[in-house]
Design goal:
The chain has helices at about 1-15, 45-55, 110-120, 145, 155-160, 180-200, 220-230, 235-260, 305-330, 340-350, and strands at about 20-30, 40-45, 80-85, 100-105, 125-130, 135-140, 215-220, 265-270. By secondary structure, it is of the alpha/beta class. It contains 10 helices and 8 strands. An 8-stranded mixed sheet has the order 2-4-1-8-3-7-5-6, with helices on both faces. Keywords: Cell membrane, Cleavage on pair of basic residues, Endoplasmic reticulum, Membrane, Receptor, Signal, Transmembrane, Transmembrane helix. GO terms for molecular function: signaling receptor activity. Its main location: membrane. InterPro entries: Renin_r_C, Renin_rcpt, RENR_N.
Amino acid sequence: MAGAGMMLWALAAACLAGVSGDEFSVLRSPQSVVFRDGSWPVPGERIPDIAALSMGFSVEEDLSWPGLAVGDIFHRPRATVLVTVKGVDKLAMPKDGISYPVENAVPFSLDSVANAIHTLFSEETPVVLQLAPSEERVYMVGKANSVFEDLSVTLRQLRNRLFQDNSILSSIPLNSLSRNNEVDLLFLSELQVLHDISSLLSRHKHLAKDHSPDLYSLELAGLEEIGKRYGEDSQQFKDASQILADSLQKFADEMYNLYGGNAVVEVVTAKTFDTPLVRKSRSILQTEESTSYNLGYSYNFNYAVVFNIILWLMIGLALAVIVISYNLWNMDPGYDSIIYRMTNQKIRMD
């Protein structure tokens, strides 16, 4: 009996080994994007594919994850916001959302989604922002360069921004956190970035109404540093977790409303990643890739319209030629042709 019990425990541990406590949560989503309620594990390496499919893009490999339904293929979201939080496996969000466990949490990036947006909508210059404040890593494409030109991206800029008059320090209860600790300031500066993104975007509301989709990818590591500094059982870590959860929900509501309820806001919480993410460094003001991949012409948004016009015009002309040819072939020259009819009367008169 003891041996059988040990075998059952080993089997259960093997089944749950790949599923950690990390979560993939959908805070806000439009009706055109359907996330089903369930506890299906999300493969960590397929999170970018979920973001791409929810925006209406194709992926290289089919995704068999049942949490994402087909939805309305004719109305896709105007923006996707994905926030990655390091150092915690779960956050107590104020509102009811949909959460799924993450299986094999590995580092990921939305570079493929950003490249797809830049390729398909290059003429419309969509807003693409990828930002990791703690690492001073930022990537902007299209109109993001003008919208977020005043956004603080370096640690020095973030620190100075916190001590300005209109910073979040005047509105967020710090509780056990301190303004004099560098780790606490790093955490608070990331919350300031969330506030500034929605605030700067609210000055350019017309960008949220165009036809090109926008992408926001944010990576927050301040809570992880607080856990390392004070410990995960400390009051500072508990207060920071609650403040971050409230700030993320507020940020999700603001972005959702700015896009008229047509935006997907997702949060990935991962306590640790299995392997570090190796990324290529890119310029802050980079607008296009300089490497040539010998690809075809860029997709134009009016391609479908022009294709349908030409297609049905050719079909109409082909049908017209067939009908005219058939009538000419079966025409009786003595009765149907006005030329023979007029010639016949002229001969009789003469």
